[in-house]
Amino acid sequence: KAGVTQTPRYLIKTRGQQVTLSCSPISGHRSVSWYQQTPGQGLQFLFEYFSETQRNKGNFPGRFSGRQFSNSRSEMNVSTLELGDSALYLCASRNLVGNTEAFFGQGTRLTVV
Amino acid sequence: GQQLNQSPQSMFIQEGEDVSMNCTSSSIFNTWLWYKQDPGEGPVLLIALYKAGELTSNGRLTAQFGITRKDSFLNISASIPSDVGIYFCAGGSGNTPLVFGKGTRLSVIA
To answer: What tens digit of pLDDT does each residue of A85-111 get?
Structure first.
């Protein structure tokens, strides 16, 4: 059974650009969550999608958005990139919302210059 | 956002020593999870706990779900160099997002 797949693994963007990251959850998992990880702040929750609907949202500005497709794959988009957006972005999948075991992908390392 | 209090922040131990780390919360959780993250990788689930008082082992790892449901600890026995990494606790309840601790960075000196 394949794990959670995130693409790309590494990305370098300049300030002001926008970026789209992709996540394919474990087959059969319908819940996808996104987290931002920085050295000082740990894992910060961005949002969670279940059956193409955003179920929960963290405290991030509107520049951060996401969506989920009918096959449960999810994308997150960050517009007007800032230097502080440099981080490891992690995606986690769960079997069902309410089943709390989450399985993470390898992450996308975003560097904004 | 809400975070768990995880301690210690970092540990330097000799190979072969036992390790203990813990997480506390002001909120009650129905599930406690422990993850390990290697550099440049995503966190990997080590142990999941679902009942207050539950004690669960996975090889040299043992974790417990506190009776009050507000805390959990993870022990690693006879540490080896590959135990190096960052260990995260996470608390979960129903449909709410998991809440993570800030991690314990473990370094093992051979």
So the answer is: 999 999 999 987 556 789 999 999 999
Q: Using CB atoms, which residue from B31, B35, B41 is nearest to A100?
A: B31
Residue of B nearest to A33 (CA): B97
CB burial class (10 A; 0-12, 13-18, 19+) of residue B35? buried
For B66-104, how does the pLDDT look when each residue is reduced to its tens digit (9 = 90+)? 999 999 999 999 999 999 999 999 999 877 889 999 999
CA angle B59–B82–A105, rounded 5-degree value = 85
